[in-house]
């Protein structure tokens, strides 16, 4: 299916000369003079090679037929990341290349959206927020207010983030899966 280049967004899959590419970043550039262009940063699904292409915003690009469904994350092993379709109980295995940095946020039983092309997983979309426990952080200093600077903390998933000074080891917090930033203390 042909679509206008300016309508492509992150996560879309395009077919260029018979090879599938997932869009990592799409940016519409409107210079003061000249024709507006769309800058696409993409990754070839077959081997992970990254490319960057520019199209006039009115040019068309072949968009691949992709099946987007909700799957449940089961576990990770040497084969890859295992997901199950909750309606049919069919299981899929996604390679670490497809999952990328999203593996830090995957938790048992987490509902995610997987995009597949001809039964092969090609991209993943995580929930916006995830809850993790703080396993290491500096002790809070008496008299320090919540409006002061943040302190570093290590979460149960191994990622580092910045948390307010009143957060202590063992506290569960909610983070944004897009960048791992602190959002709020988890409500138990």
UniProtKB/TrEMBL annotation:
The processes (GO biological process) annotated in the record are: peptide biosynthetic process
Q: Any keyword Signal?
A: no
Pathway the protein contributes to: Protein biosynthesis; polypeptide chain elongation
- State if Mitochondrion is listed as a keyword: no
Q: What InterPro entries does the entry give?
A: Elong-fact-P_C (IPR015365), NA-bd_OB-fold (IPR012340), Rib_uL2_dom2 (IPR014722), Transl_elong_fac_P/YeiP (IPR020599), Transl_elong_KOW-like (IPR013185), Transl_elong_P/YeiP_cen (IPR001059), Transl_elong_P/YeiP_CS (IPR013852), Transl_elongation_fac_P (IPR011768)
Q: Where in the cell is it found?
A: Cytoplasm
Residues forming the Translation elongation factor P/YeiP central domain are 68-122
Main localisation, per the record?
cytoplasm
Pfam families for this protein: EFP, EFP_N, Elong-fact-P_C
Purpose: Involved in peptide bond synthesis. Stimulates efficient translation and peptide-bond synthesis on native or reconstituted 70S ribosomes in vitro. Probably functions indirectly by altering the affinity of the ribosome for aminoacyl-tRNA, thus increasing their reactivity as acceptors for peptidyl transferase.
**Family recorded in the similarity comment:** Belongs to the elongation factor P family.
Q: Which HAMAP family match?
A: EF_P
NCBIfam families cross-referenced by the UniProt entry: efp (TIGR00038), PRK00529.1 (NF001810)
Entry protein name: Elongation factor P
Task: Please tell me the species this chain comes from.
Answer: Phenylobacterium soli
- Which gene is transcribed and translated to give this protein? efp
């Amino acid at each position: 299916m042909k679509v206008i280049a300016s309508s492509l967004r992150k996560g879309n899959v395009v077919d260029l000369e018979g090879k599938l590419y997932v869009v990592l970043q799409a940016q519409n550039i409107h210079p003061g003079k000249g024709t507006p262009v769309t800058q696409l940063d993409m990754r070839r699904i077959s081997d992970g090679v990254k490319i960057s292409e520019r199209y006039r915003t009115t040019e068309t690009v072949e968009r691949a037929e992709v099946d987007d469904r909700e799957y449940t994350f089961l576990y990770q092993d040497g084969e890859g990341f295992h997901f199950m379709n909750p309606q049919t109980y069919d299981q899929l295995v996604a390679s670490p290349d497809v999952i990328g940095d999203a593996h830090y946020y995957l938790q048992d039983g987490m509902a995610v959206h997987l995009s597949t092309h001809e039964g092969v997983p090609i991209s993943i979309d995580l929930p916006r927020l995830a809850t993790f426990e703080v396993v290491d952080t500096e002790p809070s200093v008496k008299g320090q207010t919540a409006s002061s600077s943040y302190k570093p903390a290590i979460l149960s998933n191994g990622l580092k983030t910045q948390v307010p000074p009143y957060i202590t080891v063992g506290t569960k917090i909610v983070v944004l899966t897009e960048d791992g930033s602190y959002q709020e203390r988890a409500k138990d």
